[in-house]
Design brief:
156 residues, mainly alpha, 2 domains, 8 helices, 4 strands, 9% strand
Length: 156
Amino acid sequence: MFARSHLDLHNIRLSIARINKLSDNIVGVGPVGIGLDGILGFVPVAGQLYSAGAGTLLVMEGARARASTTILMQMAVILIIDTFSSLLPGVGGLIDAVFTGHKWAANLLLKHIDDTIYFEGRRRDVKDSREYAELISRIRSGKEKRRVVFLGDLFA
């Protein structure tokens, strides 16, 4: 389930981008777009089912990329609001068409992945390497703000 290599991470990024585009930007003009989430928001039940399914996939991809629990929780809150906003009487479909929660959550996750340094292998396999020692030195000195994840470790 978890990413074990940089190739897995690349495929996760592609999946996140696909969900993002399908949900909130199938048809776009400049920075404004609408996707299946906005279109199906006007159809009772179908909008919630699509939104919940796409949101679940985004959170699962985040877990596969070993995103932090904080990011996964932030994504979940955004996606829950997006899923249930279409239930508001009278304006729900319109809010769902305008509120791009999937895009927001996907961008949050992609930024988090970009702010993570991934090592293939286990911590014990690279802890004696010069690259790892320099990275840890930069983190401890405050020069490096990114987090480190070892793809070979089961729980990171």
